Amino acid sequence: MALNITENIDGIFQLIGGNFSTAGEASTQLKHKLAEIGVDEEIIRRATIATFEAEMNVIIYAAAGWLHYYITPGSIKIRIEDMGPGIENIELAMQEGYSTAPEWVREMGWGAGMGLPNMKKNSDTFTVDSVVGEGTTVEMVINFP
Ligand SMILES: Nc1ncnc2c1ncn2[C@@H]1O[C@H](COP(=O)(O)OP(=O)(O)OP(=O)(O)O)[C@@H](O)[C@H]1O
Ligand SMILES: [Mg+2]
Questions:
Q1: pLDDT tens column, 27-41
Q2: Residue of 33, 123, 130, 21 lying closest to 78 (CA atoms)
Q3: Mutate-to-test residue for ligand 1 from 52, 83, 99, highest number of ligand atoms within 8 A of CB
Protein backbone atom coordinates (compact mmCIF):
# COMPACT_ATOMS: atom_id res chain seq x y z
CA MET A 1 0.00 0.00 0.00
CA ALA A 2 1.46 3.35 -1.02
CA LEU A 3 1.83 5.95 1.65
CA ASN A 4 -0.95 8.45 2.08
CA ILE A 5 1.01 11.69 1.91
CA THR A 6 0.09 14.59 -0.33
CA GLU A 7 3.54 16.13 -0.58
CA ASN A 8 7.01 14.66 -0.68
CA ILE A 9 8.87 15.06 2.60
CA ASP A 10 12.57 15.58 2.97
CA GLY A 11 15.07 16.48 5.63
CA ILE A 12 18.73 16.68 6.38
CA PHE A 13 20.93 15.98 9.40
CA GLN A 14 24.52 16.96 9.89
CA LEU A 15 26.91 14.32 11.22
CA ILE A 16 30.19 15.09 12.95
CA GLY A 17 33.05 12.62 12.83
CA GLY A 18 34.16 11.32 16.23
CA ASN A 19 31.02 12.58 17.92
CA PHE A 20 29.96 9.34 19.60
CA SER A 21 27.82 11.12 22.18
CA THR A 22 25.24 12.01 19.53
CA ALA A 23 25.62 8.80 17.52
CA GLY A 24 22.25 7.45 16.46
CA GLU A 25 20.40 10.74 16.69
CA ALA A 26 19.83 11.11 12.96
CA SER A 27 18.53 7.57 12.49
CA THR A 28 16.34 7.90 15.60
CA GLN A 29 14.80 11.14 14.35
CA LEU A 30 14.18 9.63 10.94
CA LYS A 31 12.54 6.64 12.63
CA HIS A 32 10.16 8.98 14.49
CA LYS A 33 9.37 10.86 11.29
CA LEU A 34 8.49 7.63 9.49
CA ALA A 35 6.29 6.49 12.38
CA GLU A 36 4.55 9.88 12.47
CA ILE A 37 3.49 9.65 8.83
CA GLY A 38 2.36 6.05 9.18
CA VAL A 39 5.04 4.08 7.36
CA ASP A 40 4.80 0.29 7.67
CA GLU A 41 6.67 -1.03 10.73
CA GLU A 42 8.85 -3.46 8.81
CA ILE A 43 9.95 -0.63 6.49
CA ILE A 44 10.73 1.56 9.49
CA ARG A 45 12.82 -1.25 10.95
CA ARG A 46 14.83 -1.69 7.74
CA ALA A 47 15.30 2.05 7.21
CA THR A 48 16.43 2.55 10.80
CA ILE A 49 19.01 -0.26 10.70
CA ALA A 50 20.42 0.89 7.35
CA THR A 51 20.51 4.53 8.38
CA PHE A 52 22.09 3.80 11.74
CA GLU A 53 24.91 1.78 10.16
CA ALA A 54 25.60 4.55 7.64
CA GLU A 55 25.51 7.19 10.36
CA MET A 56 27.98 5.21 12.49
CA ASN A 57 30.40 4.87 9.59
CA VAL A 58 30.50 8.63 9.14
CA ILE A 59 31.07 9.13 12.86
CA ILE A 60 33.80 6.47 12.97
CA TYR A 61 35.65 7.06 9.69
CA ALA A 62 34.90 10.55 8.38
CA ALA A 63 35.38 14.15 9.46
CA ALA A 64 31.80 15.20 8.81
CA GLY A 65 28.81 14.31 6.73
CA TRP A 66 25.15 14.79 5.90
CA LEU A 67 22.24 12.46 5.96
CA HIS A 68 19.50 13.44 3.56
CA TYR A 69 16.16 11.66 3.33
CA TYR A 70 13.45 11.99 0.75
CA ILE A 71 10.05 10.40 1.23
CA THR A 72 7.56 10.00 -1.60
CA PRO A 73 4.29 8.02 -1.62
CA GLY A 74 6.21 5.03 -3.00
CA SER A 75 9.57 4.97 -1.27
CA ILE A 76 12.15 6.47 1.01
CA LYS A 77 15.51 7.45 -0.35
CA ILE A 78 18.41 8.03 2.03
CA ARG A 79 21.69 9.58 0.97
CA ILE A 80 24.64 9.79 3.35
CA GLU A 81 27.60 11.75 2.08
CA ASP A 82 30.76 12.46 3.97
CA MET A 83 34.03 14.28 3.81
CA GLY A 84 36.52 11.66 4.83
CA PRO A 85 39.26 9.29 3.70
CA GLY A 86 37.05 7.48 1.20
CA ILE A 87 37.06 3.74 0.57
CA GLU A 88 39.90 2.38 -1.53
CA ASN A 89 38.35 -0.96 -2.42
CA ILE A 90 34.55 -0.94 -2.22
CA GLU A 91 34.19 -4.59 -3.15
CA LEU A 92 36.43 -5.55 -0.24
CA ALA A 93 34.66 -3.15 2.15
CA MET A 94 31.33 -4.76 1.20
CA GLN A 95 32.48 -8.19 2.37
CA GLU A 96 31.00 -9.41 5.65
CA GLY A 97 33.64 -9.25 8.37
CA TYR A 98 35.97 -6.82 6.59
CA SER A 99 36.86 -3.90 8.86
CA THR A 100 39.64 -1.42 9.32
CA ALA A 101 38.21 -0.14 12.62
CA PRO A 102 41.01 0.62 15.09
CA GLU A 103 41.27 -1.08 18.45
CA TRP A 104 39.63 1.73 20.43
CA VAL A 105 36.57 1.57 18.13
CA ARG A 106 36.40 -2.23 18.53
CA GLU A 107 36.47 -1.80 22.27
CA MET A 108 33.30 0.26 21.95
CA GLY A 109 31.66 -2.67 20.17
CA TRP A 110 31.99 -1.52 16.56
CA GLY A 111 34.12 -2.96 13.81
CA ALA A 112 32.46 -6.31 13.06
CA GLY A 113 32.55 -5.44 9.37
CA MET A 114 28.79 -5.85 9.07
CA GLY A 115 27.60 -2.27 8.49
CA LEU A 116 27.78 -2.03 4.70
CA PRO A 117 26.44 -5.59 4.15
CA ASN A 118 23.54 -4.78 6.50
CA MET A 119 22.75 -1.55 4.64
CA LYS A 120 22.62 -3.49 1.39
CA LYS A 121 20.50 -6.25 2.91
CA ASN A 122 17.95 -3.80 4.25
CA SER A 123 17.53 -1.66 1.14
CA ASP A 124 15.98 -2.36 -2.25
CA THR A 125 18.53 -0.23 -4.09
CA PHE A 126 21.99 0.35 -2.67
CA THR A 127 25.00 2.19 -4.11
CA VAL A 128 28.33 3.33 -2.68
CA ASP A 129 30.49 5.89 -4.41
CA SER A 130 33.79 6.93 -2.98
CA VAL A 131 36.78 9.05 -3.88
CA VAL A 132 39.90 8.36 -1.84
CA GLY A 133 40.95 11.47 0.04
CA GLU A 134 37.59 13.17 -0.55
CA GLY A 135 34.74 11.14 0.81
CA THR A 136 32.02 8.58 0.43
CA THR A 137 28.38 8.69 -0.65
CA VAL A 138 25.94 5.91 0.14
CA GLU A 139 22.49 5.92 -1.45
CA MET A 140 19.70 3.63 -0.40
CA VAL A 141 16.13 3.32 -1.53
CA ILE A 142 13.50 1.32 0.31
CA ASN A 143 10.23 0.81 -1.53
CA PHE A 144 6.96 0.86 0.37
CA PRO A 145 4.91 -2.31 0.09
N1 LIG B 1 32.14 6.39 5.32
C2 LIG B 1 33.29 5.69 5.24
N3 LIG B 1 34.47 6.32 5.03
C4 LIG B 1 35.63 5.61 4.96
N5 LIG B 1 35.70 4.28 5.08
C6 LIG B 1 34.57 3.60 5.30
C7 LIG B 1 33.30 4.26 5.39
N8 LIG B 1 32.35 3.33 5.59
C9 LIG B 1 32.98 2.14 5.61
N10 LIG B 1 34.32 2.30 5.44
C11 LIG B 1 35.33 1.22 5.35
O12 LIG B 1 34.67 -0.01 5.06
C13 LIG B 1 34.91 -0.96 6.11
C14 LIG B 1 33.67 -1.81 6.30
O15 LIG B 1 32.59 -1.00 6.76
P16 LIG B 1 31.40 -1.68 7.57
O17 LIG B 1 30.45 -0.65 7.99
O18 LIG B 1 30.85 -2.83 6.75
O19 LIG B 1 32.13 -2.34 8.82
P20 LIG B 1 32.76 -1.64 10.11
O21 LIG B 1 32.31 -0.23 10.20
O22 LIG B 1 34.23 -1.87 10.05
O23 LIG B 1 32.15 -2.51 11.27
P24 LIG B 1 30.61 -2.45 11.80
O25 LIG B 1 29.83 -1.63 10.81
O26 LIG B 1 30.15 -3.88 11.83
O27 LIG B 1 30.68 -1.82 13.15
C28 LIG B 1 35.28 -0.10 7.30
O29 LIG B 1 36.04 -0.81 8.27
C30 LIG B 1 36.11 1.01 6.64
O31 LIG B 1 37.39 0.56 6.31
MG1 LIG C 1 30.24 0.21 10.01
A1: 999 999 999 999 999
A2: 123
A3: 99
